User: Fold these one by one.
Assistant:
Number 1:
Amino acid sequence: MDIPEVTVIMPAYNTEAYISQAIESVLGQTLKNLELIVVDDASTDKTLAIAQNFTDDRLKIIASPKNLGPSGARNLAIKEAKGKWIAILDSDDWYLPERLEKLLQVADAENADMVADDLYYIKDGDKTPWNTLIAQSGEQIDTIKEIDSVYYVETDLPGRGGLTVGLTKPVIKREFLVKNNIEYDESIRLSEDFWFYLKCLAYKARFIFVPTPYYFYRSRLGSLVASTNKVKRLEETCNISKHFLEQDFIKTNPQLFKALSRRLALLEKTRPYFRVLDAIKSKSFSRTLVEMANNPYFFVHLAKQSPQIISRRINYFSSKYFSKYSSVDKHLSKD
């Protein structure tokens, strides 16, 4: 087999209901010269067995005897990769057939180290996306855009809108990763992509964003993000931010250091909001009152967030109502 143009890495943990669609979307790409590495991260369901049912010789399966977490599983796949480019796909998401071909065309034309696309947001069980990354962000992006490290940090603020590029799944030049010894931090189990891409940008990766969605991002109950307490997620993100601010590749870039410091300050200000929200979800009236009294900034943050919350709800329910008129239905079949 020739050297693959791209290696798609897919960590998988207990996604038996979704992994077939994810694998099929890779093997069905218009770009044929590829390899797919699936790392089963010690699943306890039929995920591994389903992946092993595929017979395509471009597919390689690694069964980890212990759970490595998403960062560890990705690192394992990257070490085994032979492709010129590394592409990332979560095992509960999927690609449109032309995705890799289109992104590599842009990569060659722009001499890029990383290329990401817009993505469709789709809820588990729905047949039509309810929004896209760009539309959700409120940004106006009509042509390809270069993403620098400061823009990347300043427009990816949890709960405050902006173009959350950290959610995308770019193709990345493997030679760039090897040259700069860049890998996932295996202590990070949430938002690991955000920090991985940030490190690439800190090492001067040329990152191009394409305003066309070729990636379907599925939100579902049971995913690692959905099942993790938001207060815990926020605290972990703050701790990781402090760790990154101590690293030389951040400290030697004053503008990036300042942007990441501002992001950390904003994240810490949102802690009261999520503490009260967590109390409300617990359905404990007394706990909620205590948290509201201890965290009065909750009301300020809620007032700021209300327009975005309402907008997201309108977008979601509008998409469901008009789903039968969608032009992307032909891409969504699981058969």
Note: The longest strand covers residues 207-219.
Number 2:
Amino acid sequence: MILSETDVATRVVRWQALHGRNHLPWQQTRDPYRVWLSEIMLQQTQVSTVLGYYARFLERFPDVSALANASLDEVMALWSGLGYYSRARNLHRCAQTVVSEHGGVFPRSAQVLATLPGIGRSTAGAIAAFCFAERTPILDANVRRVLTRVLGFDEDLAVARNERTLWAHAQALLPSADIDAAMPRYTQGLMDLGASLCMPRNPACPQCPLQTLCVAHRAGEPERYPVRTRKLKRRSESWWLMVLEDPAGKFWLSRRPSAGIWAGLYCVPIFPLRSDVSAFCDAAGLPSAKTMEEAPPFLHVLTHRDLYLHPVIVRQYRKTTPDDGGGWFTAQQIAVMGLPAPVRKLLAGL
């Protein structure tokens, strides 16, 4: 079956109006700043989690100029707990670029939006479709799953050529009538289908408006799509978190490297081995058995990695400070600093 945009777009638009998500705060505006903020936060993060962060960000940074003029530390502090912290750094850089190079006004085309820090092609398409009704496609994970199943597109998306072909198919299926109303609703509809019906496992095909058009459904194998041969493998690591508290109740924190896990955040010293903790204590002249308290280890789950965190707490620390460029911070200072969520929770418990 050769699908036309009328077949797909009409059904998606109609379904979204009746059954899609229409109550979210960023859907009640065509302000590109607010839509952009929501799109960045929603990458790899569930809507229920984003809602609180979105409201707090808008309260503190009501427009792009306020965000651009803020310090990175303040942005990271508000982002703490959302994960994927490179998003926060790019968010800040993007706001500064919009102010410095575009006069504080977001570009109106997906092509130009995609040149901004942290905005890829799909995010640019979403902003342009929602805010400016541009006839441009998106291909986030949910939409990619919907379209590959409907089209029966079984080419390996790990190959760049096949990814470009799918983008061309997505473009061809866009609405071509009543664009101003149809493009935002069609774009949202594809997202909603992928989030609510066309799930990775056990898709709810009987409720899907595209069921009778869907090649994967007719073949009885929707879970076969999308096809991607290169997949990241999960792995586990153990980290020892060295919590140093001085007699005044301050904690030693230093900034993490600019790349890698928790990049750019403030953190307690981290050691990959338990023996490294002992070596640190020996170098500092600590009678480790008397001064160290080992808290129960706990698991922190990232997208492709499991971190087993082992807190080691040293109270009344009076020895030489670590040579990592850090400093001593009070609980009040820590509250407005960017820390990884598990570290913030750990310190709050102390």
Note: The mean pLDDT is 91.
Number 3:
Amino acid sequence: MFYGIAAAVSALLLASVLAALLRAAALRAGLVRQGSAGPDRRARPVPLLGGVAVVLSTGAVAVVGDRTGNAPLGSVGQLLIASAAVAALGLVADVWRLRTRFLAAGTAVAAACVVPYDDIGPAAGLAAVGWIVFVALAFKGLDRADGPAGTVGVITAFGVGVCAAVEVMDGLVVLLSVLAAALTGFLLHGWPRPARIGLGACGSLFTGFVLASAAVLTRSGYDAVSSVGVLFALTAVASADAVLALLVALPRRPAGRSRGRGGPDHLAHRLRRLGLTPQGVTVVLGAGAFSGVLVGVLVHAGWIGGTAVLWVAAGALVAVLALLRVPVYGAPRQPDISVRPPRRAESSQVSSRLRVRSG
């Protein structure tokens, strides 16, 4: 108990210090994205190395606990190694802007190394790989705004950690607790005031991958139908955000935008269009994540029936359909086909002089 508290506090402080140090390095290197508007209504660049602080803090505290014998990771060490590989891929994407398909392929390879095929079977294992990739990319989408990815990540980590505790998976509980603490330390700088640093693809992919993989491990041995419901409830906000982004991507061409170009396709952007502040958006999404996680934990523990997940699904569907109607793109830009006024005719005297001067 004492070591768990000490590990969480260490991860929180280490992530906070590293985030402050890496912020200046990211600004010098130009690794930034556009952030939310501040009090002066001007958007500021947000450095993207906050995820490196989260990854290093989580890995360092978890490894120290394992090496000292205070919190052995056991088989969870394989998950930590795969997650580090995904984080490295995300860091490459932050620096060189990799396409999404490359991120998905690399994350799928890492997910294939952690899925428990012996417990869930090959078919379910393949579906689990796809779901892990989906959640990891969904958290990357959440990081397009200041605050939601870190906030939803903390809440989800606590929820999945409770599920792991129910299954007496001590190594997984330690990893998720340390991750939640590291994300909290990051939020000391990443909370939208506006945010001073962002997770970037490195941190968001790492967070989504760890949470999705851990959730799959906690549900190994359960029937597939109930597992689908619990896994969705635990990641309801991230899943809804990804679905909304996919639906919005379809009409981009009529709006005169490329489908490969980022845009206001996510829950946070549309809530901002409704008048919420960046802080308000983060609180609303955090409350939604807490509701879904609470249902998922209660269903996993057997304290309520599995049908309760249907309420989470219904709420997510209503939110997506309602926010899908929020206009975020302007009218299509039409080509300029207006007739220009004829040029004023030159006088014969000027023309004559020009002809004389030209010889």
Note: Residues 44 and 204 are 20 Å apart (CA to CA).
